[in-house]
Amino acid sequence: MINKQKIITFGIIASVYIVSAGLSYFLFSKFVAPKQTVNISTTITTAGEGQKVFNTTEPKTEECPLNGAMYSKTQKDWWSGHRPLGVMVENHQQARPQSGLSFADIMYEAVAEGGITRFLPVFYCQDAGIIGPVRSARTYFLDFMSEYGNSPLYAHVGGANAPGPADSLSQIEDYGWEGYNDMNQFSIGFPTFWRDYDRLGHTAATEHTMYSTTQKLWDFAKTSRDLTNVDKKNISWDEDFVPYGFKDDAPPVDRPQSQVIHIEFWKSMPDYFDDWEYDRVSNTYKRFNGTKPHIDRDTNKQIAAKNLVILSMVELNANDGYENNVHLLYKDKGSGRATVFMDGKKIDATWRKDKRISKTLLFDENGNTIKLNRGLIWFSILPTNATVQVK
Predict the structure, then answer these.
(1) 230: which DSSP letter?
(2) Which of 132, 136, 178, 353 could bond to 173 as cystine, CB 3.0-4.6 Å?
(3) Considering the domain 46-391 in this protein, what is its CATH number?
C-alpha cells in the first residue's frame, strides 16, 4: 500500500514538473528569448570576384522596386542593405562584349558622341559581378540617374568637362554628388576599379579596359562614404522614390507569333543600330547590336528585355568649343513622344519628366499611366529624326 502511494505521489510530481517545464519554455521562447533571424549567407553562394548567386528555388515573393521582377526573401534581405547604382558602360565596337549588362534592373542607351551609343545600367536587386568597360559621364545620363531616390550611386571614369551645358563634372559638383554618391574612378582608383587588358579577348586601346564590380562599388560606398540603404542622417534612399506600376505578362494565347523592332540612332552609323526580336515563349525581346546578338561576356547569353521603351527627344550639339563639337545634349525634361513594346505589341505613348529628379512617366494615348511587365526595362533615347521600323 505504501509503495502504491509512493508511485502515485511520484507520478503527480513528475506531471507537474513536465507541465511547468513546458509552460516555462513556451513563455521564455515567446517573450524572452531573442528571435532567430535567417542567416542569408547560408542560402547564397559566390562566383568570380565575389558575385552573389542566389538560390533560385526559393519562393519568389518579393518585388524589385525598380522593375517589378519577383525574387526571394533572401535576395530582398540582401538588396535592402544598399542603394541603386548606375555605371557608365561603353558600346564602342572595341569594347564588346561587355560584362554585367544582363544583370541590370533598368537600362538607358543614348548616343555619347559621333553616333556611338553608351549605356547606363542601373543595379539594385541583382549582383552583376564584373561590369565594364566603364567610361565617362554625360549630362543626360546624370538626369536619368537622378530619378533613383536620394543620393543614388553613380560610377564612371571622368566625364565631359568643357565649360558649358554639357559639363557633367561641374554638374556633379553642383548637385552635391562629388565625393559622396559620385564614384569617379579618377578619385577612387584601385582596387575598386582596375584595368584588364585581356578581358575582351582582343587588342583594345587603354580606354576600353576599365572594370569594377557591383559589390566593390557598394562596399566602397558603405565603408568610405557611409552610404548603405540609408545616408549619414539615417534617411532611406527610397524616401522620395517613385516606382513604376507593374503587371504580369500577357498569357501566351494573347501573344503574337513574332515582332521585330529596328532602331537607327544615327543613320550614318550602322554598327550601332539596334534590333530587337520578340520571343513568344519567354515574352522577351532579344537584343542585336550592329546586326549581331548582343552577348554578355560573363554569362555568354544574349541580352533580353521584358520592356523596350523608346523615348524621342530633341538632340543638340553642346557648342562648348570641344574638339569637333562632339558633346551632345538631349531635351530630357518636359514631354515628348514615346513608344512602348511589351507582350509583342506596340503602344503609342507620351513621356513626361518635370525636372531633373523627377521620374520619367509614361502615358498611353488616353492619358492613362502605362504599367510595365516585370523584368528588365530598356530605355532607348533617340533623336526625333531617328528611324524606328516595326514588323
Answers:
(1) B
(2) 178
(3) 3.50.90.10
